UniProtKB/TrEMBL annotation:
Descriptive protein name: Alpha-1,4 glucan phosphorylase
Pfam families reported for this sequence: Phosphorylase (PF00343)
InterPro entries documented for this protein: Glycg_phsphrylas, Glyco_trans_35, Pyridoxal_P_attach_site
Enzyme Commission code(s) on record: 2.4.1.1
Superkingdom classification of source: Bacteria
An individual GO BP term: glycogen catabolic process
Gene Ontology annotations for the cellular component aspect, listed alphabetically: cytoplasm
Function: Phosphorylase is an important allosteric enzyme in carbohydrate metabolism. Enzymes from different sources differ in their regulatory mechanisms and in their natural substrates. However, all known phosphorylases share catalytic and structural properties.
C-alpha cells in the first residue's frame, strides 16, 4: 500500500494569529482586546476547521467516487474528549497555536480549558470508538462514525458531605459548540409504531409517528494523512407537522405531545454500562440512529439514484456493530431492501450478512441485550416480523447442520414462549446470525466468547469468530497527554515517526540498558508527577506529594473490577501502621488515586464510592500515617483527568476477577506511559504481560480455570476472612464504624455481601494481592530498576496502538484499506 501524505500546513504563526483575530472580529464580534479565553477558543476552533475544510471535502469526494470500500462504525457512544488540541495536532498547527495565544495575550491552558468536554459515552466502549475513528482517518481509510448527538452526556459526578455520589445533568451544549456542523438538508425520516398491512410477500409498514434525524457532522482529522473523515451524530427533531385531528378533539397540548416525544429520543445518554434496562426509549435511540445511518449510507453511495443496485452495497461500505446496541440495523437493512426497494428475501439476506459485522465487548451475561418481542412489536412491528422470519429460517438451517434439538432451542434468536415467559429477542444472537464476523476484544476474551458465551454458535459457525485485541490512539494518549515522554522517545529513536508507527517503540528496548537514558526517563515521570500535583491542587484542592508513589485505579465502578479489593488493601495497610505492626518509615510512601463513576441505580457500586471517600477522609486526616499513605478520589473522572493522571502514574491497578474484564484499555494507556501494572490474568492484561515480559508485570490472583473450579467446588468467602487476619481486620474496620463515624449499619450491605456471597471472589484473591505488595515496594525502593522496567513497558507496548487494531480489522474483517 502506498502511503498518501499531504503536505503539513505551512502557515506561519503570524498568519494563524491573524486568522484567529479575524474570526474574533467578524464571527464573534469582539476585538482581540475584549476577547476572553472562551472567545479565543471558539475563534481558534473556527480557524482550525477552515484549515481542515478542503481536506474534508476532498476526502468525501474521493470516498464517493473512488473504489475503496468504506467503513461505517455504528456506535451508540463516542467518547471523544476535548477536540481543540487534537485538531491542532492533526492540522499541523500546534506550534502556531502556542505562538498565537501568546501574541493575543492569553494563556494556552485557559483557551484549552474553555472547551467543555463532550461526554457522549460511558467508558471503554465509547472511548474505543473514538480511538478507532482517529486511526481510520490517520490511515486514510474512508470511514464514517455513526452515532447519536445526545443533548445530555454522561452525568457530572459530585460527592456530598457524606461521600456519596450525586449525579448532575451534563448539559454540554449550554455554550457555543464550534465543532459540530448541523446539516438540515441531509436529514432522514425515521418511523415508529403503527401497523403492517398487505399480503405475505408485499408488506407495507405505516408508522404511527415519525422523527426527523438531523445529522450533526464532526471532522475527524487524520494525523499526517491529509484526510479528514466524518463523525455523523444524529439529533432528533420533530417534524413541523401538527396532528389536526387530535388538536380538534383534545386540544393543543395533546397534539404537540408527539413532537415532544420525538425530541426526547436524543436527549440523554443512558448511564448504565453493563445492565441494560430494557427501556423503550433506549430501543428508540438504537433504531433511530441505525435507521438514519443506513439510509444515509445509501444516499451517499448512490447519489440521486431512484433504483440503486443495493446488491453492490457490501462493495461500497461495511457496517461494524459496536456491541449489540446497533443490532436492530440488521432487520432494518432487510426491511429497506425488501419493502422499499423490492428485493426478494434471499438477495436481501445475502447483502445484509455481507454488510454487517459484530464486536462483542463483554462476558457478563447480564450485559447482553435482550428485548421483549412485544416491545419490538409495538415500536417496530415490521422489524419483529422480519426478526421472526430470520429466526424461522435460522432454525431450519440449524436443523440441516445438527440433530441436537436442545442446542437448536438454545440458539434461537427469538426465545420460545414457555412457562408463561414471554418471547424475547436476543440481540447478540441476531448479530451473530446476521453478520459475517464476530470478534472479541482481547485474545482471552475471544477465546471465552467461543468457549462460553457464544459456544453453540462457534460450534456451528466457527469461521465467523475472530479476535481483534483493542488498541488506543498514541496521538491523544501519548503525544498530546505526555509531551515530555514524547520528546524523550523521539530523542531516543531519532525520529517522531513512532507517533503513527507505534511498533517502533521496540527500538527503545536496548536503551533500557543505558542507565543515563533510564534516568532521563525517571525525570520525565517525576516532572509529570509534579504537574499532576499542581493540577490536583488547582482543580480539586488536593495536596498530593509528588515524591510518593502514585498508584491509580481509574475505570467505571463495578463489582467485577473489584475496587473493593483495592480499598480493603488500603485499609489493611493503614491498620498495619496504626497497630504498630509495621513502622510507618518502613512502608513506601504512596498516594492512592481512585477515579470512577457508578451507574445511578447500582447500589453496591454507590456504596463502594461512599466507602472509598470515607476511607480517604479518615486516612488523610490521621497524623500517624501522614506522608506515608494518602487516598484521593477526584470526582467526575473523565478524559481530561485521565490525560493528566496517566502520565504521572507509577503503578496501575487492573485487578478484575479473571474472566470478567473483556479487554480493558486503560491498562494499555498506563503501560504506554510508563506505569507498571499490578493485575490479574484477565482481558488484555494477559497480552500486556506477555509482551512486556512477566518480570516487568506484577501478576497475582486466580486464573479463569481456578475461578471456575472454585465456583464448582462451592465458594465460601467467609473461610478466607477466617484464614487471613489482615483480611479479617480490614473487613471488621468497615463494619465497626471506623469509616462511618461509629455508625455500624452504613456498610452492612457491602460487608455482608463480601462474607456471604462475594460473587467476584474479592476475599479469595485478597491474600495474593497483599503478598505482591511486598514485591512492589522492594522494587520501588530501587528507582533505577523500577524505571528500567517502566521503560520496558513503554518499549514493548507499541502493539496496543489503535492503528494496529485497525490494521487487524482491515485485514481480517473489513477487507479494505486506505484510499488511493
Ligand atoms: C446498558 C447496556 C450496556 C451493556 C454493555 C451498555 C454498555 C456496555 C458496554 C459493552 C460496556 C463496556 O464499555 N465494555 C468495555 O468495552 C471495552 C472496549 O472493548 C473493554 O475494554 C472493556 O473491558 C469492556 O468492559
Amino acid at each position: 500500500m502506498t502511503e498518501y501524505t499531504a503536505p503539513k500546513a505551512s502557515i506561519t504563526s503570524a498568519a494563524f494569529t491573524d486568522e484567529i483575530r479575524e474570526q474574533l472580529r467578524y464571527t464573534q464580534g469582539v476585538t482581540p482586546e475584549q476577547a476572553t479565553a472562551a472567545d479565543v477558543y471558539v475563534a481558534t476552533a473556527a480557524a482550525v476547521r477552515r484549515h481542515l475544510m478542503d481536506a474534508w471535502m476532498t476526502t468525501q469526494h474521493d470516498m464517493v467516487t473512488g473504489s475503496t470500500k468504506a467503513v461505517g462504525y455504528f456506535s451508540a457512544e463516542f467518547l471523544m474528549g476535548k477536540q481543540l488540541r487534537n485538531a491542532l495536532l492533526n492540522a499541523g498547527l500546534s506550534d502556531q497555536f502556542d505562538d498565537a495565544v501568546k501574541a493575543l495575550g492569553c494563556d494556552a491552558r485557559d483557551v484549552i480549558d474553555a472547551e467543555y468536554e463532550p461526554g457522549l459515552g460511558n467508558g471503554g466502549l465509547g472511548r474505543l470508538a473514538a480511538c478507532y475513528i482517529d486511526s481510520l482517518a490517520s490511515k486514510g481509510v474512508p470511514a464514517f462514525g455513526y452515532g447519536i448527538q445526545y443533548r445530555y452526556g454522561i452525568f457530572r459526578q459530585e460527592f456530598d458531605e457524606q461521600g456519596r455520589q450525586v449525579e448532575r445533568p451534563d448539559y454540554w451544549l449550554a455554550n457555543e459548540e464550534p465543532w459540530g456542523h448541523i446539516d438540515y438538508n441531509r436529514s432522514q425520516r425515521v418511523g415508529f409504531g403503527g401497523v403492517v398491512t398487505g399480503k405475505d410477500d408485499v408488506r407495507t409498514w405505516e408508522p404511527a409517528w415519525c422523527v426527523r434525524a438531523v445529522p450533526v457532522d464532526y471532522m475527524v482529522p487524520g494525523y499526517e494523512s491529509g484526510r479528514v473523515n466524518t463523525l455523523r451524530l444524529w439529533s432528533a427533531r420533530s417534524y413541523d407537522e401538527f396532528d389536526l385531528l387530535t388538536f380538534n378533539r383534545s386540544g393543543y397540548l395533546a397534539a404537540v405531545k408527539p413532537q415532544v416525544k420525538a425530541e426526547n429520543i436524543s436527549k440523554i445518554l443512558y448511564p448504565e454500562d453493563s445492565t441494560p434496562q430494557g427501556k423503550e426509549l433506549r430501543l428508540e435511540q438504537q433504531y433511530f440512529f441505525t435507521a438514519a445511518s443506513i439510509h444515509d449510507a445509501i444516499r451517499v453511495f448512490y447519489p440521486g439514484q431512484e433504483h440503486p443496485d443495493l446488491t453492490t452495497l457490501p462493495d461500497k461500505i461495511c457496517f461494524q456493530l459496536n456491541d449489540t446496541h446497533p443490532v436492530i440495523g440488521i432487520p432494518e437493512l432487510m426491511r429497506v431492501m425488501i419493502d422499499e426497494y423490492g428485493y426478494d428475501w434471499d438477495t436481501a439476506w445475502r447483502t445484509t450478512t455481507a454488510c454487517f459485522n459484530y464486536t462483542c465487548h463483554t462476558l457478563l451475561p447480564e450485559a447482553l441485550e435482550v428485548w421483549p418481542a412485544s416491545l419490538i412489536g409495538s415500536l417496530l412491528p415490521r422489524h419483529l416480523e422480519i426478526i421472526k422470519e430470520i429466526d424461522r429460517r435460522f432454525v431450519a438451517q440449524l436443523k440441516t447442520l445438527t440433530d441436537d434439538a436442545e442446542k437448536i432451542d438454545r440458539m434461537r434468536i427469538v426465545t420460545l414462549a414457555a412457562d408463561g415467559k414471554e418471547p424475547k429477542v436476543r440481540m447478540a444472537y441476531l448479530a451473530t446470525a446476521g453478520g459475517s464476523h464476530v470478534n472479541g476484544v482481547a485474545a482471552l476474551h475471544s477465546e471465552l466468547l467461543k468457549d462460553v458465551t457464544l459456544r453453540d454458535f462457534s460450534d456451528v459457525f466457527g469461521d465467523k469468530f475472530t479476535n481483534v485485541t483493542n488498541g488506543v490512539t498514541p496521538r491523544r494518549f501519548v503525544k498530546l497527554a505526555n509531551p515530555r515522554l514524547s520528546d524523550l522517545i523521539t530523542d531516543g529513536l531519532g525520529t517522531d515517526r513512532w507517533v503513527s508507527h507505534l511498533d517502533m517503540l521496540k527500538e527503545l528496548v536496548p536503551l533500557a540498558k543505558d542507565d543515563a537514558f533510564v534516568r532521563r526517563f525517571a525525570e520525565v515521570k517525576q516532572a509529570n508527577k509534579v504537574d499532576f500535583a499542581a493540577y490536583a491542587r488547582r482543580e480539586y484542592g488536593f495536596e498530593i506529594d509528588p515524591n510518593t508513589m502514585i498508584n491509580s485505579m481509574v475505570k467505571r465502578l463495578h463489582e467485577y473490577k473489584r475496587q473493593s479489593l483495592k480499598i480493603l488493601a488500603v485499609i489493611s495497610q493503614y491498620a498495619d501502621i496504626k497497630s504498630g505492626r509495621v513502622a510507618a518509615e518502613d512502608i513506601v510512601p504512596r498516594t492512592v488515586v481512585f477515579g470512577a463513576k457508578a451507574a445511578p441505580g447500582y447500589r453496591m457500586a454507590k456504596l463502594t464510592i461512599r466507602l472509598i471517600n470515607n476511607v480517604a477522609r479518615v486516612i488523610n486526616a490521621d497524623p500517624d500515617v501522614k506522608g506515608r499513605l494518602s487516598v484521593y478520589y477526584p470526582w467526575n473522572y473523565n478524559i481530561r483527568l485521565a490525560e493528566h493522571l496517566i502520565p504521572a502514574t507509577d503503578l496501575d491497578e487492573q485487578i478484575s476477577q479473571a474472566g470478567k474484564e473483556a479487554s480493558g484499555t486503560g491498562n494499555m494507556k498506563f503501560a504506554l506511559n510508563g506505569a507498571l501494572t499490578v493485575g490479574t490474568l484477565d482481558g488484555a492484561n494477559v497480552e500486556i504481560r506477555e509482551l512486556v515480559g512477566p518480570e516487568n508485570f506484577f501478576l497475582f490472583g486466580m486464573t479463569v480455570d481456578e475461578v471456575e473450579a472454585l465456583y464448582d467446588k462451592g465458594y465460601q468467602p467467609s473461610s478466607y476472612y477466617d484464614a487471613d487476619p489482615r483480611l479479617k481486620q480490614a473487613v471488621d474496620m468497615v463494619s465497626d464504624g471506623t469509616f462511618s463515624d461509629g455508625d455500624r449499619g452504613v456498610y452492612k450491605p457491602l460487608t455482608s455481601d463480601w462474607l456471604n456471597k462475594d460473587y467476584f471472589m474479592t476475599m479469595a484473591d485478597f491474600s495474593a494481592y497483599m503478598d505482591i505488595q511486598g514485591e512492589i515496594e522492594t522494587l520501588y525502593r530501587d528507582p533505577l530498576e523500577w524505571n528500567r522496567k517502566a521503560l520496558l513497558n513503554v518499549a514493548n507496548s507499541g502493539y496496543f496502538s489503535s492503528d494496529r487494531a485497525i490494521d487487524d480489522y482491515l485485514a481480517n474483517i473489513w477487507k479494505t484499506g486506505p484510499m488511493d
